[in-house]
Design goal:
single chain; alpha+beta; 20% helix; rod-shaped
Length: 97
């Protein structure tokens, strides 16, 4: 396939919902005949993924590829995060060319 410009950019974002859990301040004490465990559990949910940018020449040959993995807890900031990641990925391309 041939394209009218000298190069074109392709990008792909692969993300999934993930969570981590952490047990804080575990302690054990015995009350009467039954042991009692008290744990404070914290669960953090976030999106985790990879942002991939590829640069192809007009003959559809891959010229350059860059990627960055990310974790985002607040979905309101995902657009800003992806723009920042895109800038960081393309800065690597600029420094190598």
């Amino acid at each position: 396939m041939s394209y009218p410009s000298e190069a074109f950019v392709s990008f792909q974002i692969t993300a999934s919902n993930t969570s981590t859990s952490e047990v804080n301040n575990p302690y054990y004490y015995r009350r009467t005949y039954y042991p009692y465990y008290n744990n404070d559990v914290t669960v953090t949910q976030y999106k985790e993924g990879v942002f991939l940018i590829e640069l192809y020449d007009q003959n559809d040959k891959l010229i350059w590829q860059g990627s960055k993995s990310f974790k985002e807890r607040d979905s309101k900031n995902i657009e800003q995060l992806l723009l920042q990641n895109a800038a960081e990925i393309t800065d690597v391309f600029k420094s190598k060319s």
